[in-house]
Design brief:
This protein has about 625 residues and is an alpha/beta fold. It has 21 helices and 20 strands. The strands form five sheets. It has a five-stranded parallel β-sheet, with helices on both faces. Helix 17 runs antiparallel to helix 21. The termini are far apart.
Length: about 625
């Protein structure tokens, strides 16, 4: 609430407009929605925040605005003080002026809503009749209106008193201050009640998002919700018996990994292996379309052979059961079978059809048909390899970040051992976030844990090496969460790195560190890199559907021979630096030679030596 300076009350009833006829435009609400990428679904509405000064209206509304905009949902926050510095600067705080203030902003909110935006209006609006009029203005135009009452007690609001207005009111310097010497009429049937003395800002935001989702304003998968695909516990036995009668499809380890990815919610909003429309959207747009567009750059599909397709046609099956190692793990409903046009897929997904590409080699052995449909998984996937404790689902990671009071999360994916150059980049990112004003940025150290090509370091060795790095304090164990990302590796370069980034958003990351040549590899014909090493980070900065994620650019680190440590490379002092390539590192580890001091944590280096000395020499 702005300072209640003395202003003459204006009689707003003296002049009425005449000869006015409302003009209907040619652009429908559905057409406006298309400009926002909503494909005909109109999302315009107003969320009206009411409550005492200091109750949290503006803080909550701006937080909701930030979340919705970061998810590609158009929204705008209207604040009482801001409006009184412009549109309503000629109004004071008399009852008449307050009534006119709310009437004007009700009309403005309606215009924002009619434009297809979620309008977030934060006004004390102490009188019930004024708020009711605001609601009528919207609903008479076919617009949704949600009244959110910030019920924070007066003593809490007065204790906050950020602007010092309560003190002035108590001292008699401000007259007619709501809650002190002017009445506030609490809503009798608001859409939502929030008490910020008991709820955090994030909890309030979550409840407002739930309200909008429940009322079909925004799709659930457009916000922070992660949908897991597990069967409800009390229905498992009944559904197992039903699934046992369905046509049986045995899946291999690779597709079991993809089943894990889907079931845990990494690929939200996908609800199963892709249908043909979803597959085409992914191949051609790198996005899923629906009520908006959502990043999904790689196909998650289930290949089947012709014999299975023919059997399903004979049975006229609409459901199938999935087995892994002869154990029932899931079933699919509303199934759809369509051609697996492999050459087209290779060209679009990998930018090459070279049969020497490792993932293409795998796909060549798979079926010529794809089956999609809704997936229902009976139990969480466990690999029983001693590493399951690090396989955290997205929702579990979000819970962990809340428990350790992280105010932002930055993620780093890797499929290689960590040297001190990596640590330098991660620590630099942390310092940047602290400078931005975050109090406790937390690192999600997230090695890829699915299928990789045969010459990559195995997951158990990498986890052991990462733990050694943490134990030696090269990375701060108090602000680092080590977890395994269950996705297989496809080596699809800039196309795949969008998938890696999208999945980390599901885990709660807001910043993503991009390395050199992410998801890249040497060209199978030996002619150099298959993908331009810089394109991964450049594509991520432009990728539609990932606007909620801020990309942290890669910095080249090298070993400084003078300072005896890994540092960011300075071209002006190039003679001081030595680049230790992966090939050189592997050769040193195999021979038992120690790297320069400061290149890698000693215990982590020992893990590498033990591994490379245990395997046959490279050809």
């Amino acid at each position: 609430m702005a300072s209640a300076e003395k202003r003459p009350s204006v009689d707003h009833q003296t002049i009425m407009a005449t000869n006015v006829v409302y003009q209907q435009g040619h652009v429908t609400r559905g057409m406006r929605s298309m400009t926002f990428g909503h494909r005909g679904k109109f999302t315009g509405c107003t969320v009206w925040f009411t409550g005492l000064s200091g109750s949290g209206k503006t803080t909550i509304s701006f937080a909701v605005e930030n979340l919705l905009c970061s998810r590609g949902l158009p929204s705008y926050g209207l604040d009482g003080d801001n409006i009184r510095t412009g549109l309503n600067k000629n109004l004071g705080f008399s009852p008449n002026d307050r009534e006119e203030n709310i009437r004007r902003i009700s009309e403005v909110s309606k215009l924002f809503s009619d434009a297809g935006m979620v309008c977030l209006a934060s006004f004390i609006s102490p009188y019930s009749k004024d708020r009711e009029r605001a609601k009528e203005i919207h609903e008479s135009s076919g617009l949704k209106f949600f009244e959110v009452y910030l019920s924070t007690p007066l003593e809490i609001c007065e204790g906050r008193d950020v602007k010092g207005l309560y003190k002035k009111a108590r001292d008699g310097l401000i007259k007619g201050f709501t809650g002190i010497d002017a009445a506030y009429e609490a809503p009798t049937s608001p859409s939502l009640v929030l008490d910020t003395s008991k709820l955090s800002v994030q909890e309030c935001v979550d409840r407002i998002v739930d309200l909008l989702t429940a009322n079909d304003v925004i799709p659930a998968h457009a916000v922070d919700h992660v949908k897991e695909l597990f069967v409800e516990e009390d229905k498992k036995e009944e559904l197992r018996q039903a699934a046992a009668k369905m046509h049986k499809i045995e899946i291999d380890t690779l597709n079991m990994q993809w089943l894990q990815v889907l079931s845990e919610g990494w690929a939200s909003p996908l609800t199963g292996f892709m249908t043909e429309d979803q597959y085409l959207q992914t191949l051609h747009f790198n996005n899923l379309l629906g009520q908006g567009f959502y990043s999904q750059s790689v196909p998650i599909v289930l290949p089947i052979v012709s014999e299975i397709k023919q059997a399903l046609e004979v049975e006229e099956a609409t459901q199938v059961a999935l087995y892994y190692q002869d154990k029932l793990v899931a079933y699919m409903t509303e199934i759809e079978v369509y051609p697996h046009r492999k050459e087209e897929r290779y060209a679009r997904q990998f930018g090459t059809t070279n049969p020497g590409h490792p993932y293409i080699e795998v796909l060549e052995k798979s079926g010529d048909w794809l089956i999609g449909g809704n997936l229902h998984v009976f139990d969480r996937v466990r690999w029983e390899d001693g590493l399951d404790e690090y396989r955290k689902k997205p929702n579990e990671l979000r819970t962990k970040f809340r428990e350790i009071r992280a105010d932002t999360v930055f993620a780093f994916q890797l499929r290689n051992p960590i040297h001190n150059g990596h640590a330098c980049l991660m620590d630099d990112t942390k310092q940047q976030l602290l400078q931005k004003g975050y109090k406790k940025p937390v690192l999600l150290l997230h090695p890829l844990g699915g299928w990789t090509k045969s010459d990559d370091v195995p997951l158990p060795v990498r986890i052991e090496q990462h733990l050694a790095v943490l134990k030696e304090g090269i990375l701060d164990p108090e602000t680092t969460v080590l977890a395994i990302f269950p996705s297989p590796m496809m080596y699809a370069g800039p196309t795949e790195v969008q998938w890696h980034a999208k999945a980390r958003v599901a885990a709660g990351a807001r910043f993503y560190i991009v390395g050199r040549d992410p998801a890249g590899m040497p060209h199978p014909d030996g002619s150099g890199d298959l993908y331009d090493p810089t394109h991964g980070r450049r594509v991520l900065k432009m990728a539609p559907g990932l606007t909620q994620l801020e990309i942290v650019p890669f910095k080249v680190a090298a070993y400084n021979k003078i300072n005896k440590r890994m540092e960011f490379f300075d071209p002006k002092k190039s003679e001081e630096f030595e680049f230790i390539s992966g090939t050189k590192m592997r050769a040193m580890a195999r021979s038992g030679e120690n790297p320069p001091d400061g290149f890698m944590a000693p215990s982590a280096w020992k893990v590498m030596v033990d591994y490379y000395q245990s395997i046959k020499p490279e050809k």
